[in-house]
Amino acid sequence: MFLKECNKHKIDHILLGHHKDDLIENFFIRFLRGSGLKGLVSFDKNVSNFNGIKIIRPFLSTSKKELININKKTFGFFVDDPTNNKDKFLRSRIRKLLKNLDKEGLNFNKFYLTLKNLSKSDQVIEFYVDKNILENSKYFEKDKKIILNQSFFHNPEEIILRSITQVIQRISQKKNYPRGKKVISLIDSIKFSDKNLKLTLSGCIIEKIQDSVIICPEKR
Length: 220
What we know:
This protein has helices spanning 2-9, 20-32, 37-41, 64-75, 90-103, 108-136, 157-172, 180-192; strands at 13-15, 47-50, 53-56, 137-140, 145-148, 197-201, 204-209, 212-217. With 220 residues, the protein is α+β, with helices and mostly antiparallel strands.
């Protein structure tokens, strides 16, 4: 909905009100869902890009308590969403869990520092993902296909997983990444099969021919 409105009115920046508490809550929500490192820290960016629109979160280092005080001093009031206290929402249950952990000694600032350190580790992985794609794949604009060489798969599992996920998304031109389990299954098929293969995933045809892998869009 936001993307549609931005394109309609030629807006290229969106400012969101997410704050430090949202950052921590999101970490635990992703943690409970079994997310990897990328998912755990995906919220930890003040500026990110989505389909050409810059998403800006200026309050990620500011707590909810601080923002409420600012609102009281500036406007004399603040708006409280009544759904914040409804247990049918996972975020509300996580929020209560964090309050209990705070009583047990969870240090908010130390946790935030840990999250920042995890984010730095994620940046290192992203560096090698970009390097892998640059050095071990070739994109053919005319045919809209990518060929991966054998060295593409001679990397740690996380590098391979993120690399091939990005490649598939580029070819399929879908907004969402393919599901992790399906990508892992695809990688295993490619790495451990001695025969030529032809598979499909997320609107792409993935074909293994000897030591190369060709990825192209499915015909519609």
